[in-house]
Design brief:
This protein has 757 residues and is mainly α. It has helices spanning 39-55, 65-76, 78-83, 99-111, 115-141, 143-155, 157-162, 169-189, 192-209, 217-227, 232-259, 276-290, 303-308, 322-325, 329-343, 351-372, 386-405, 414-432, 440-457, 464-491, 618-627, 641-651, 670-678, 699-712, and strands at residues 498-500, 503-505, 637-638, 656-657, 684-688, 714-715, 746-750. A three-stranded antiparallel sheet has the order 5-7-6, with helices on one face. Helix 18 packs antiparallel against helix 19 (440-457).
Amino acid sequence: MTSATDPLPPAPGPSAAPGVPAAEPTQEPSPTPAAPRWSLPALIAIMVLAAVLYSWNLSSSSLNSFYSAAVLSGTHSWKAWFFGSLDAGNFITVDKPPFALMIMSLFCRIFGFGTWQMMGPMIAAALGTIWIMHSSVKRVFGHAAATVAALVLALTPITVAINRDNNPDTTLVLLMVAAAALGLRATRDGRLLPLLGSAVCFGLAFNTKMLQGYIALPAVFAVYLYASRLGWPQKVRNLLLATVALAVSSFWWAAAVSLVPADDRPYIGGSTDGSAWNLIMGYNGLGRVLGGEGNGGGGGGGGGGTFAGTAGLGRMFNDILGGQISWLLPFAGIALVGGLVLCGRAPRTDQTRAALVLWGGWTVLHFLTFSMAEGTMHPYYTTALAPGIAVLTGAGGVLLLRAFRGEDARWSWVLPAALAVTGIWAVVLLRRASGWNSWLWPAIAVVMVLAIVGLFVFRSGHRVRLLAASVAAAFVAALAGPAAYAIAVPAGAGGGAGGGMGGTNPTAGPSTGNGGFGGGGPGGGRGGFGGGNAPGGEAPGGTQQGGQNAEAGGQQGGFPGGNGELPQGGGAPGDQEGAPTGGQTGTPPNGTSGRSGGTGGFPGGGAGGGGGMGGTTSGELVAYLEKHQDGAKWLLAVSNSQGASQLIVSTGKPVISMFGFTGSDKAMTLAKLKELVKKGELHYIQLGGGMGGGMGGDNTLNSQITAWVQKNATAVKESAYSKSSSSTSSGSSGSSGSSSSTTQTSTLYRLDPSDLN
């Protein structure tokens, strides 16, 4: 094992393999050399930069209300905390295992429910990822490589975007990076404990996003099996023990859920039968790769095709994902191949090659999985690619630089070629963003050309400082594009967060392509699946927040609701726009503000609650529902989780999502609805558009429930809760039956035990 401590390490001596530093035998690790004086300050500066990028202006960023609702519910109910329930009444869970939600809920239980309380542990996790990766890389490739890798990871555009959101991906990446680092340490040291730690981290990653947490697992275990110094019997024994640790840490939650009778636990969102095992194998398993299981189809029309472009090997470079993750992907690929070739005939236990294989395997496995996935594929999933790209850029770049300066002239072209490809690709990506910082791509082109010329001019001789200046210039040119995209997120200079179903689809930089239903692509504003007809929005059309036209519908925003508008104030973690204006950040939303109407926001404001019915503000409707809740366990039942989550965050009270996140869960049946009504646990149900009422779920179940409610329940006149409505606009018959108005987007019904007769 070697450690480079100079940002421009010397060329290897004649006895070394081409491009590989002369090293002591890898069978016996040498003492770690003293760190150069610049290393720790550089790491601290990168960590500070990352912290600023991930937290600046955070209170005005849009968080995913789907997860915000689950976090809030977990602060009200330990049962909801354990199961990951969307509502504190534990009717249905989110469609992910609860590990990341557990962490956020614990912080919010201790410090109060708010943006910073929720995002604090996520930002800490993001910084921890940088620190762990830096520590792992420097042990094998040196401080210069580790510093470059840390900076690349910190400035990856999609990583900056997702680390400012409450999606579980930030926690997922931390756990996987920790697992990879521990696996590499176990390979180097031959100790069992780091290998068991790696397995446990992968298991916790599984309990964060299920099978996605396993993508890098084959690379880690394969490297240990091949490159460990231990004998085969001991390696096999250790891997068997690690497999046991992996199984226990992966399946403890699913096993515990299965031990609870179905009637005593919430419906597992995303499953077809209410079980955690079905969620593992279906919606969050093969369904993500093959399509179906609630993930839509792949290619150009299904879930994967609409959020991230058509499945195929070119997906990471398309208009949607290219500017988010692919800036240094060509360089990483060249560096991986070049680094492996340069390792030559190094011993089987060579740690340089082992690390390259591990992080290269990480990158290749994620690249292929994300590229070929036919199911749901959001742009922010690609943040899991970032650590592999970062390590290969830093470590591979150092190896290629050593080869460039070596005595073998055959390698003098590889580094300049890799830099040239990087510069050309940066120009291509920036030219896609027409009119956005149009000066940047010519500047990158000029600097990169001058840097490459400088490399050749100053390669020989003793002009080390001029050569170092050329290397630094090339590095700046390579990072300028992704840095601009990344900085645009907290600065608000890019397109912002794209719309996702009921929450956000975080992206960085300007708009360069259609990112999904209702737009919401890279920087495509905050339009999204919530607009249009799903659920409860107006007809397709309109514009997006960010000035970008939606290719596939959506009003100005993506909230489920009649008018589709974004909230304009408030301060709870569901805020989607604007700085808080008298909101209640830091305390659980109690619905005491914004109830008099207007646009409100969270808590209790207009669009924040889902838009209301027939154009009325939701503040009036929520006030009516709370006044007439009459001891019911749930405030309201709506069709899907998008509408329910908005109401949960705005009121702090349980709301039923009858058909889950995609609207296809079979959580509510007619028999279950009648039972809830009989027990007096539910008095109000919304059918049609409005607060999540427009996405029908299972057609048979939806038809049965709709027909029964319209026949037996009492339709509530809009004038009963809206001061601005007229008696003719509600379209309600008053006692029973369906709405008669064609302009009514939804109808509220009152359910009582007497309706069962």
